[in-house]
Amino acid sequence: MSTQNLALKVATPYAEALLELAKDMNILSVVTKDLSLVSNILSDSNDLQTYLSNPLISISNKKNVLNQIFQSQLQESVLKFLLVLVERRRITLLSVIIDKYLDLAYKSESTTIAEIITSTVFTEQQESDLINKIKLMTNSQNVKLLMKLDSNLIAGFIIKIGSKIIDTSLYGKLNQMSLYLNAK
């Protein structure tokens, strides 16, 4: 069993428990927003990730740091959840737990997650048009766009929805032409 599969297997019960708690307390959207914030902060701060995953740092110090960073930003139950993860020495799995939670939460709300890789930032109108197109393609009620910039694309964009990839980028078209020409 790979390390990633093991991490997912350990993270899933925590994500499911938090999702049930959020549903029971009727704060699903608040918890989802809070966990997205935590995920963004973690991805922006390698120092925080390193600090939380360091086994030499005491549990109380980790709790203090989390309280200082998140106490005024997160709903109380989300902060308590983070502290439970520290106590149970599962804080190193936080990113995996958040990803699994968001996946489960979006599925329960019938939300499709579309990763958009583009060379330029979309306008609000372009995002709205793309969301409407994806809703039609996937028969979803809600669509969440995860935008990523990649200057290598030159022009156009790539859409990833689950295992489906739609590549409208100039870079992708040039690669297809190159493969076609090299095949002959």
TrEMBL record:
Protein's cellular compartments: Membrane
GO MF, any single term: proton-transporting ATP synthase activity, rotational mechanism
Gene Ontology CC: membrane
Tree of life domain: Eukaryota
Matching PROSITE patterns: ATPASE_DELTA
Pfam families, per database record: OSCP (PF00213)
Keywords for this protein: ATP synthesis, Hydrogen ion transport, Ion transport, Membrane, Plastid, Transport
InterPro entries: ATP_synth_OSCP/delta_N_sf, ATPase_OSCP/d_CS, ATPase_OSCP/dsu
Annotated family: Belongs to the ATPase delta chain family.
Protein name: ATP synthase CF1 subunit delta
Source organism of this protein record: Crouania attenuata
Gene assigned in the entry: atpD
